[in-house]
Every structure is written in C-alpha cells, then in structure tokens.
C-alpha cells in the first residue's frame, strides 16, 4: 500500500542586522492509515512594534496546543479530518490568538503584532490561513503564490497605482495593513486546494523572499528535489545571507510523496471498513 510521507527542510536565521530573531516556525506531523499529515506555520513578529518575538511565540504555542489537544482528538474520534470543519476551528483559534496578543500588549503598555501563514496538508488536500506579508507558495512546473500580501505596497499594486518593480524598492514596503494583535476585527485570508504529484510547498517570512528571485528557488529545487529538502533551504539561505540578510529570515520547504509500504492484517481490515 502506498503511504504519504513528507520530506521537509527548514531554517530560521537572525540575519546580520537585527538583534533578536522575531520569526517563529512550527512543524507538526501526524500519522493516519494513509500516511502522514502535517501542520506548518510561519509567524513573523513585527520588529517596529514592542515584543514582536513574544507575539510570534504566542502564535506558535497556541497552534501547538491546538494540534496536541484538539486535532489529535478529531483524528482519533473520526478517523479523518474534514477541512471545511477544520477551517472554522482554525478561524476561532486565530481569533483567540489575536485576543491573547492584544491582551499581552496591554499588559506591557505597548502595541504587539505578528504575521501568520499557516498550511495544513491532509491526504491530497490543503488549507491555508493567512494574515500579513509572510508567504506560502506552491511549486511544480511553476511557482505560484497561494497567499496575498497585506502590505501597503501590495495594495497599491492591486489598485494599479504602483508596479511590482517600484513596490519592491519602496520605503514603505514593510508597512502592513493587517496583522495579528493590533485590532479585534480580523480579515483572515483562506485558500484551499488539492495536492498533486510533485507539488512542493514553500512557507517563508519576508526576510527570506525579499532577497531571492523565482528562478533561484526553482534552480535549487531542481538540483536537490525531494532527495534533500534541507540542502535546498541551506543553499537558498546561503544566498540570502550573501546579500546582507538585513532581516530575520525563515523558511519551511515541504514535499509530499507516496511510498509503497507493507501493511499488516489489522490495517487491511480497518481499511476495508472505511
């Protein structure tokens, strides 16, 4: 029987300018009868605000708690994950996280914020929840961005006021219109889709993607492919650091493949009953 398995590469680097790394990442892998499923999160604490590292840390802790306490229970009780149902739960979780960060900000008499880009892969489906300017890409023959930047310059591009080239070098390119922890109202971006053969997912903070071009990422993937995702991210992070790395940079690279594995008699019986 073929079972789904992940090949993963990940790195988070402080860079050469910032005094602290305010990026946080989370990778959680579960197992069910068809193989592995996974939760992947990148949170980039806002350096212009107070205690950005604490904001991103709260995001990661809450998602970890949700995975350990809630998602494992869903899989155990229902033997599967319904992404439509989980989507609503994720929204509630993000609203809860937002409230926690706002309360934390009040406790230290400051404004605290973070981005969030989250990907849940289950069997051949994925769901994304996103706020801010971290990004998630799906890469196969091409590299497609699955999130949208909640930044001032991205809004100018969408309105046709500014082109992409000007936006990339604009002094306001780091100004966010939406993030977690500033306002009680949240507009959570969602994207859902299918995972096809040879798809690779890339989650990253702006400190990573701002110093790379698409062709460099595609070349690195072509060189290492699924055999070594870690070598791929190490090569790409090396390029980022060679260009000065003025910001924290974080990346998660995920490849899901199907491998033929032996299945025992008990699993065969369970599979027949599903």
TrEMBL record:
Coiled coil spans: none
One Pfam entry name: PP2C_2
Domain called PPM-type phosphatase: residue spans: 7-256
Name of the protein described by the UniProt record: Serine/threonine protein phosphatase PrpC
Provenance organism: Maledivibacter halophilus
């Amino acid at each position: 029987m073929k079972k789904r398995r992940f090949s993963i590469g990940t790195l988070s680097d402080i860079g050469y300018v910032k005094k602290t790394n305010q990026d946080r990442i989370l990778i959680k892998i579960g197992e069910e009868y068809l193989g592995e499923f996974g939760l992947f999160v990148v949170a980039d604490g806002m350096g212009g605000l107070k205690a950005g590292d604490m904001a991103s840390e709260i995001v990661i802790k809450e998602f970890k708690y949700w995975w350990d306490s809630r998602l494992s229970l869903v899989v155990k009780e229902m033997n599967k994950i319904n992404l439509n149902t989980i989507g609503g739960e994720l929204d509630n979780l993000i609203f809860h996280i937002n409230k926690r960060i706002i309360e934390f900000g009040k406790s230290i008499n400051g404004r605290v914020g973070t981005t969030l880009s989250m990907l849940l892969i289950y069997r051949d489906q994925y769901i994304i929840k996103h706020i801010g300017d971290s990004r998630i890409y799906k890469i196969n023959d091409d590299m497609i961005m699955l999130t949208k930047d909640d930044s001032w310059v991205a809004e100018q591009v969408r309105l046709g006021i500014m082109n992409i080239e000007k936006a990339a070098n604009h002094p306001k390119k780091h100004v966010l219109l939406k993030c977690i922890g500033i306002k009680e109202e949240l507009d959570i971006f969602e994207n859902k889709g299918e995972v096809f053969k040879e798809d690779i997912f890339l989650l990253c903070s702006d400190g990573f993607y701002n110093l790379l071009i698409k062709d460099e990422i595609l070349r690195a993937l072509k060189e290492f492919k699924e055999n070594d995702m870690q070598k791929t991210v190490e090569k790409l992070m090396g390029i980022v650091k060679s260009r000065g790395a003025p910001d924290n940079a974080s990346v998660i690279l995920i490849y899901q493949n199907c491998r033929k594995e032996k299945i025992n008699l008990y699993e065969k019986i369970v599979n027949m009953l599903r």
